[in-house]
Amino acid sequence: xFDIFFLLHMIGTAALGFYLILPFIVGSTQKLSAxxxxxxxxxxxxxxxxxxxxxxxxxxxGGYMMSQGEYAVIWMIIVTIILLxxxxxxxxxxxxxxxxxxxxxxxxDVTADIAKLRTFSLILALLLLVMIYFMVYPIxx
Length: 141
Fold this sequence. Notes:
Layout: H1 2-16, H2 18-29, H3 34-68, H4 73-92, H5 94-105, H6 111-136
Helix pairs in contact: 1-3, 2-3, 2-6, 3-4, 3-5, 4-6, 5-6
């Protein structure tokens, strides 16, 4: 059973890899034409939704695997807080994504929404890197 959960956990990790490249994608959207911006922002919106499903997979499979291992309580608290922070930031990011998409379609300035997306994407990338560190170097009892 553990092996199945580990496989699902790795699939969820692959989905979260999107957050590592997201800052670079968001940073290049301002240089695109309006039509290309609309496509890029819509793609980011869909990919963010898929990555959020990856977060759910991580929560379920990681919770199971934590219950089977002998990890230090502080480690479990830290990784749970990081995961919840990633959930929150990914969810908050959906509002500027919708705002940017609507603004592009209405031919408004979307600089503020793109700036928010850039900030959120950087935070998500950093949180994921910290999470990877704690997964590679877990703290055992």
